[in-house]
Design goal:
This protein starts with a strand and ends in a 20-residue tail after the last helix. It has 5 helices and 4 strands; from the N terminus they run E-H-H-E-H-H-E-E-H. By secondary structure, it is of the alpha+beta class.
Length: about 160
């Protein structure tokens, strides 16, 4: 079993991931695992390629070995009702390995990955907010007027009385 990933720097866009999953929308957003075998793999691969690449473009199916996949397990990684990543495991050999137990393991991994990704996003938002507040403190301390902000309310000049 190998982890399928696009060549370096060539991540599959969300539309391609969604097409590769090929299950119903409610299962996609719920993070429900899906297993594809046989013709379903070929149909999903064709849909993902159409969603990802322009006609006449490069041929990623050769690089990604889509024709060699015999079985694939996909689990949308969700947070707050949105798919934020996609776990995909492919099998290139004979036999069936992605049974109910493998699907449960994949779903458990996806839950843990979602927690890590959500935590990282929260830390990034907090760091950005800290940088903004530090800049505001510097501007306030220097006595310089703050840069204008984009606001839907027009600024009204006012006169200071002493």
């Amino acid at each position: 079993m190998r982890l399928r990933r696009p060549p370096a720097g060539r991540a599959q866009p969300p539309s391609g991931q969604r097409a590769w999953y090929s299950g119903p929308d409610d299962q996609w957003t719920a993070g429900t695992p899906r297993v594809l075998r046989g013709y379903a793999v070929t149909a999903a691969a064709n849909a993902a390629l159409r969603a990802t690449f322009q006609v006449g473009g490069e041929q990623p199916h050769v690089q990604w070995r889509l024709g060699d996949i015999t079985e694939t397990l996909g689990v949308p990684i969700t947070a707050d009702g949105h798919v934020i990543a996609f776990l995909n495991l492919d099998r290139f050999g004979p036999g069936v390995v992605f049974d109910a137990s493998a699907q449960e393991t994949g779903m458990n991994f996806a839950v843990q990955a979602a927690l890590l990704l959500a935590s990282r996003a929260r830390r990034e938002r907090e760091a950005q907010r800290t940088r903004e507040l530090e800049a505001l403190v510097q501007i306030t301390a220097s006595g310089m007027p703050a840069a204008p902000t984009t606001s839907s309310t027009p600024s009204v000049p006012c006169r200071m009385w002493s």
